[in-house]
Amino acid sequence: MKPEMAHLIARARRATRAAFGAKGATASVSGIANWMARSFEDELLLTFARARPKAILLQLLILLPVLSSGMFGPSHLFLPAGTFLVGLGLAASLVLADHWPKVSRISAKRGFLGLEVMHGLGWAFLTQNSPLPAAIPDSAFAIFIPVALGGSALVFSSAIRGAMAAQLFPLLLANGLSLLTGTHRLPVDLVCLSIVVIAFFLYLGGRITEATRDHLAIRAEKDALIADLEQAKAHSDEARRRAEELNLAKSRFLATMSHELRTPLNAILGFSEVMEAELLGRHRVKAYRSYARDIHESGQMLLGLIDEVLDLSRIEAGRYELVEEACQLADSVSECAHLLQLRAHSRGVSMMMVDPDLPPIVADERALRQITLNLLSNAIKFTPSGGDISIRVGSVPNGGQFIQVTDTGPSIPAHEIPIILESFGRGSLAVKRAEQGSGLGLPIVRGLVAMHRGEFSIQSREGEGTSVTITLPKDRVLTPPPRPVVERARAAAA
Ligand code: ADP
Question: 431: closest CA among 382, 372, 377, 379?
């Protein structure tokens, strides 16, 4: 799991735990915690209020047979008193369930609990005597009511902590009191069984309430996590947008600057060339000629640097446009090798090219030349006199084509490879030998290869030199049309 994700989950958990009153909640999450706690309580109240009408229907279904059998049995006070309390409690609770959002959350909760006690008391009265002992024995009546009531409370009243206890506690109390005062008409073991049944339902209700709260906590954790992720995404989108804007501004700045620099630079290059060639007359001091040459060379270096900066900024800003056409990879590479042959020779480095017969490819030829020139000039620059450079062009097994430039120079330390691939990154060798270079050559190569959907890799091992390979994908290779049958037969005969 990513560390940011783990952090977000931990934050959501802390807030949820704090919402449920766990100790150690930190101040930073108290705002979310309070908000969550409030919404949990609201949600539990809503669940309870929604379940209320269904519970009332079920309790009426239990109450009706009791009442109808009571009409035929001996009259006693428990029946009307119990029925009145149950009816009133249920009706009031129904009204409150309908109107609870209008009163405060705490008053609504207290109201619900009070009404639960009221109709629980009613059931406690009803359990004291079976209205029709001949048809329903007292013993069955004493067990049936707690089971039916406990079952309905389990399903409908466990959303609010204490609601089930409020409903069943009067039954428990009535049984307990009858035992203590010795006024029980049932055998002691039956009264005890009734108490155990009620206690069992209370236990189950408690577990269900916990499970409901856990479920809500998990859902809240998920919601908090989603909210945090959305916020993180919005931040990252904003950061990306800013980075893109900055990149664009940088490219515009570089494009303008390089244009502004090029104009005076061209004048410097032109006039220094005229002075070096002494076109308008000989210098009286000989050193002026070599100064003019130095000015010209420095100007050319500066022009090269400006071009590189401009190219890289265009690639990074996605504004470098490839001019794609069919070309021969081997031809472009050998032209570049030819161009740099003199430089390699003057440094005492030999250059060799392996160039098989390859089908043409679709690519930007100027970019291919830039890639090859950068790789070759690096190889020439870093290979000591007497070293070899081999250039290979060929096909890869999956159908693409590659260029590989391998030299026998000193290797690049593995930890420096990521550095030299960054813009302006230079290796320790270049710094130590004070080699010229801006550290833009390889990033440009990498950018151009990526624009061709190709791959770029550097292999460099201690004592084995450096090998840079670029591979162009198969879909850039043009498959030659099949040769006519006659031609094939002729070729076979030859
Ligand atoms: P530069 O213009 O400075 O050569 P590059 O991006 O082309 O910039 O190269 C970055 C660095 O990579 C160089 O400074 C050098 O340290 C290292 N490097 C590149 N090619 C080679 C090579 N063939 N052999 C050894 N080091 C190399």
Answer: 382
Tokens of 167: 């409903």
Burial (CB count within 10 angstroms: exposed 0-12, middle 13-18, buried 19+), residue 134: exposed
Residue whose CA is closest, atom 4 of ligand 1? 437
Q: Which two tokens stand for residue 356?
A: 């098989």
Distance 335 CA to ligand 1 centre (A): 22
Residue 20 and residue 43 in contact, taking contact as beta carbons nearer than 8 Å: no
Q: Are strands 465-472 and 388-395 parallel, antiparallel or unpaired?
A: unpaired
Q: In this predicted model, what pLDDT tens digit does every residue of 48-101 receive, in sequence order?
A: 888 877 777 777 787 777 777 666 666 567 778 888 888 888 888 888 888 877
**pLDDT of amino acid 22:** 46
Cβ of 382 less than 6 Å from ligand 1: yes
Domain spans of the chain, in order of start: 3-233, 254-317, 325-476
Q: Does residue 116 line the site of ligand 1, with CB under 6 A?
A: no
Phi, psi angle pair for 137, to nearest 5° = -65, 150
Q: Which helix (H) or strand (E) holds 122?
A: helix 105-127
Low-confidence stretches of the chain (pLDDT < 70) are 1-39, 69-76, 129, 131-136, 184-185, 480-494
Whole-number Å distance between alpha carbons of 391 and 63: 98
Tokens of 8: 């977000």
Residue with tokens 């013993």: 139
**325-476 CATH pick, 3.30.565.10, 3.40.50.300, 3.90.1530.10, 3.10.290.10:** 3.30.565.10
* pLDDT value of position 181: 79
> Does 437 sit in the ligand 1 pocket, CB within 6 Å?
yes
How many Å apart are CA 186 and CA 183, to the nearest integer? 9
CB 134 within 8 A of CB 186: no
Is there an atom of ligand 1 within 6 Å of 145 CB?
A: no
Give me ligand 1 centre to Cα 302, in Å: 18
Phi-psi bin for 171: left (phi > 0), alpha (psi -120 to 50), beta? alpha
